[in-house]
Amino acid sequence: MFDRLEITVLPPGPRFPAQLRFWVNGEDVMEQVLGPGGRGPLAAEAFPVGLPSPLRATSEPRRVQLGEPECTGGCCGFPTVVVQRMANVVQWSGWQVPHGEGRLLEFDFDANEYDAEVARAEADLG
Fold first, then answer.
1. Percentage of residues in the chain with pLDDT exceeding 90?
2. Residues 23-48: pLDDT tens digits?
3. Could you tell me which of 42, 46, 39, 51 has the C-alpha nearest to residue 64?
4. pLDDT tens digits, one per residue of 42-84
5. What phi and psi values does residue 84 have, to the nearest 5 degrees?
6. Cα–Cα dist 19/40, whole Å
7. Alpha-carbon distances, residue 126 vs 28, 107, 117, 121, 122 (angstroms)
8. CA nearest neighbour of 104 among 42, 45, 25
9. Distance from CA of residue 20 to its chain's centroid?
10. Burial 1-29, CB ≥16 within 10 A → b, else e
């Protein structure tokens, strides 16, 4: 059984421009990793204009930054995950999270559903 990804685009606020939240199987991944004060990546970094999104999965494994703790990543580190496509599966694995925070397991997504969700979130910004 595959995991289910949902990407939510949060509107800009007083402190940060638009950012993303990642929900896997109905749970907020960034809250699990960073607690309630953490934030997801800035939408402009996840979907840079004129460049492919780092969230797009390829056969080449790529480490992707998925957010920042409330105290900033320069202090505690940034949560990152390795994103890789293997045939019809996109896998998130090899989590690195700020010290003292929760650890996550691997997530395996159906590649077609994953691609559609990344494209949908990107379109929501355009």
1. 42
2. 999 998 888 877 777 778 888 889 99
3. 46
4. 888 899 988 889 999 999 999 998 887 666 545 566 788 999 9
5. -150, 140
6. 6
7. 24, 28, 15, 9, 7
8. 25
9. 7
10. eebebebebeeeeeeeebbbbbebeeebb
